[in-house]
TrEMBL record:
GO terms for biological process: L-amino acid transport. Belongs to the ABC transporter superfamily. Pfam families: ABC_tran. It comes from the Bacteria. GO terms for molecular function: ATP binding; ATP hydrolysis activity; branched-chain amino acid transmembrane transporter activity. PROSITE patterns: ABC_TRANSPORTER_1, ABC_TRANSPORTER_2. Gene3D superfamilies: P-loop containing nucleotide triphosphate hydrolases. This is High affinity branched-chain amino acid ABC transporter, ATP-binding protein. It comes from Treponema primitia (strain ATCC BAA-887 / DSM 12427 / ZAS-2). Residues 9-239 form the ABC transporter domain. SUPFAM superfamilies: P-loop containing nucleoside triphosphate hydrolases (SSF52540).
Length: 239
């Protein structure tokens, strides 16, 4: 039985630059098994950069990323995906001119064995994708595209799913559906690292959260405590 308190991901003192732009400066954070952890903050705070650096898209200037006890700093993306981490980009990150089915199969490209079983699993979790499997992803609604992004990430059999801005551009009802899906996936055992600008929704569904501003962690704690924190309420919840 997996221990809930055991860290699955530890990020230590991570700094990342794009040329002269310092996108992250000394970011440290941790996810434990069984947790949903939110990374909240305004536009340009560096949320996507944290996730992409964990996945291996960016090389950090300093700092380390440890996944399931193994240092994976600087490992290439495909290696990290094979090792059990994945990223569901915001829904526009699906391949619009490819069918839903081909987008999903791409998510399992590193291990095609067992792909049929995984397809069965994601079509059970997202029946609408099964109904639309032969349709081009570009013809899906925003919410369906977001589901496809998450479903594609699941095809690689991850143990941690990083989800970048799943509520972006979606109607409130659709946002609720997406967040329910994330909570259900977490109940099934996936650790979820969630970047969001919809601070209220993110804090309602997460166990803990980190607040990122201008590339630095400026607050952290239990999601419930942050929801009641006057400074967070004033800055992010208009209260
Ligand atoms: P958003 O919610 O708007 O996506 P974010 O919190 O995810 O914002 P990032 O996308 O990580 O933030 O961006 C952090 C900073 O790094 C921003 O100032 C952004 O302009 C800059 N940045 C991101 N990617 C690049 C890049 N490829 N080249 C140059 N600067 C970049």
């Amino acid at each position: 039985m997996e221990q809930r308190n055991e860290p699955i991901l530890s990020v230590r003192d991570l700094s990342v630059s794009y040329g002269s732009i310092k996108a992250l400066q000394g970011v440290s954070l941790e996810l434990r098994r069984g947790e949903i952890v939110a990374l909240i903050g305004p536009n340009g705070a560096g949320k996507t950069t944290v996730m992409e650096t964990v996945l291996g898209v960016n090389t950090p200037d300093t700092g380390s990323v440890v996944f399931e006890g193994r240092d994976c700093t600087g490992l290439p993306v495909d290696k990290n995906v094979r090792n059990g981490m994945t990223l569901a980009p915001e829904g526009r990150g699906v391949f619009a001119s490819m069918s839903v089915l081909d987008n999903l199969l791409l998510g399992a490209h590193h291990e095609t064995k067992g792909a049929d079983k995984k397809l069965g699993f994601v079509f059970d979790a997202f029946p609408v994708l099964g109904e639309r499997k032969n349709q081009n992803a570009g013809t899906l609604s925003g919410g369906e595209r977001q589901m496809l992004s998450i479903a594609r990430a699941l095809m690689s059999t991850p143990r941690i799913i990083m989800v970048d801005e799943p509520s972006m551009g979606l109607a409130p009802m659709v946002v609720n559906t997406i967040f329910k899906i994330l909570v259900n996936l977490n109940k099934e055992g996936y650790a979820i690292f969630l970047a969001e600008q919809n601070v209220y929704k993110a804090l309602k569904c997460a166990h803990r959260a980190y607040v990122l501003e201008a590339g630095r962690v400026v607050a952290q704690g239990r999601a419930e405590d942050l929801l009641n924190d006057p400074a967070i309420r004033e800055a992010y919840l208009g209260a």
